[in-house]
Design goal:
Mean pLDDT: 89
Radius of gyration: 18 Å
Order of helices and strands: HHHEEEHHH
Helix content: 40-55%
Low-confidence stretches: none
Strand content: 5-15%
Strand order of the largest sheet: 1-2-3
Distance between the termini: 49 Å
Shape: globular
Length: 167
């Protein structure tokens, strides 16, 4: 058995967005439209919290706490409850979005115009659409390689940056 060679395979490279690419992606939605404001809030929340797509589209209006101790509460994989703190810029965007959304506590935070939850396919489509728009401002963005899980990787990569750790 020891003489059998180990399988050799290429390990896929984990892609993530740089700070400039994140800024371009978040700036891509058209803020004059309701969907654009929703998409900006969704993208910023995804990048800043590292939520999976299922967790993101499963958020209700009551799952966001703004002000002192601002956080997003969600139930993730394996029914694990977690609360992710929010930064001031994300709070500002979500404060505007929740006041415009004006949803009941048990309604989806990110919904369609008819009030239904977004599907994972729709989230993937809007991320790709805004990545295509952002590529004009930031040529290093490759829209064909940007999908919702890349936003999660980008969040994880920001945690690995030395300037984000206390000295």
């Amino acid at each position: 058995v020891l003489a059998i060679p180990a399988k050799r395979f290429d390990k896929p490279t984990i892609t993530f967005l740089t700070a400039d690419q994140i800024d371009a992606l978040v700036a891509a939605p058209d803020l004059t439209r309701w969907e654009g404001r929703r998409d900006r809030a969704l993208l910023l929340t995804a990048i800043q919290t590292g939520l999976r797509v299922a967790e993101l589209i499963g958020l209700n209006c009551a799952d966001i706490t703004l002000g002192t101790g601002a956080a997003v509460s969600c139930v993730g994989k394996g029914r694990r409850h977690r609360a992710v703190p929010l930064t001031a810029p994300t709070q500002a965007v979500l404060r505007v979005w929740t006041s415009e959304r004006a949803g009941q506590p048990d309604e989806p935070l990110f919904s369609t115009r008819t009030g239904n939850r977004l599907s994972p396919d729709v989230v993937q489509r809007l991320v790709r659409k805004h990545a295509t728009t952002a590529a004009a401002a930031c040529p290093t963005i490759r829209p064909d390689q940007i999908h919702p899980h890349v936003l999660r990787h980008s969040f994880a990569e920001t945690l690995n940056q030395p300037e984000n750790h206390p000295a």
